[in-house]
Amino acid sequence: MRIERHRIDPGGRAELRARLDELIQPQGGETPVCGPGCPRPALRDCRRDCPEIPAALSSEPERYPLETGIAPLAFELTRLGVFRTCWSCEGHNGPDGELRKVPRVWFYAESVLHLRVLAEALREIGFAEKLRVPWQVAATFSDPDNPGSAFSLEPNLTLVSARLADLQGDMGVIAEKLGPAVTHCARALRSSLDAPGCP
User: Fold this and answer.
1) What residue numbers bound the domain in which 120 lies?
2) 19: which DSSP letter?
3) Is 2 inside a domain boundary?
4) CA distance 80 to 66
5) Opening angle at CA 137, ends 5 and 97, nearest 5
6) 186 Cα distance to chain centroid
7) What is the pLDDT of residues 92-127, one digit of tens each?
8) Residue 147: inside a domain, yes or no?
9) Domain assignment present for 1
C-alpha cells in the first residue's frame, strides 16, 4: 500500500506556518516561564535550575510540588510556550532496587504539529547526544471519565531496558538540549513548507 501525500490548501498552509512560528519565536517573554506568580519574577533569574520551580509549576504547590529531578525538564517543556504541563514523576525504584516508575512529564497540547516537532526534537537529541534509551511522545489520559487527551514525554522501554540512573541522566540532557532542538526542527519544517513544489 502506498501512503499518498497529504495536500495542503492555502489556508491550511498559513495555519501550519503560524503553528511553527509559535515554536520558532515563542511568545510570553515578559513574564517568567512559571508564570506571573513566580516568587522570583526577575526574568534574568528564569532558568531550569531555579529552586522555586517545583512549587511555581505546581497547581497545588504546598501538597504536590514537582519532584526536583524532573523539575528542569518540566520547566523546559513549559518554556516552549505551547505545552501546558499537568503531571510529572522523576522516576523511582522499588524496594528491590528495580525500576518501578519511569521519569515522565505529562502535558496538554493544542496542536498535533507541535507534538510532531517535539517528537522530532527528541529523536534529534537522541542521535546527537547518545541517550541511553529513545524517548518519545505518547498519548495518554488522566482519568477514565475525562474525555480530554494528554501527552507524555517519556522513555521508550519497549525494546531496551535501563536503570533509573541512566533514565535520569537522559532526562537532564533532554532538559538542556530541548529548546534549541525544537527550534531547529521547527525551522527545518517551516523551510520545507515554504519550498517550491511543496504539496
Assistant:
1) 10-194
2) H
3) no
4) 18
5) 150
6) 14
7) 999 999 999 999 999 999 999 999 999 999 999 999
8) yes
9) no
Could you tell me which residues are beta bridge partners of residue 89? Answer: 104
Give the integer Cα–Cα distance in Å for 102 and 141. Answer: 17
Query: 87 falls in which pLDDT band (50, 70, 90)?
Result: very high
Q: Is the pLDDT of residue 83 over 70?
A: yes
Query: Which residue has 492555502 as its cell numbers?
Result: 10
The reported pTM is: 0.89
Q: What is the pLDDT of residues 146-172, one digit of tens each?
A: 787 899 999 999 988 999 999 999 999
Task: Report the C-alpha gap between 60 and 155 in whole angstroms.
Answer: 26
C-alpha cell read off for 133: 534509551
C-alpha cell of residue 6: 497529504
Which grid cell sits at 124? Answer: 534529534
Strand partners for 193? none
* Residue 199 falls inside a structural domain: no
Residues in the chain: 199
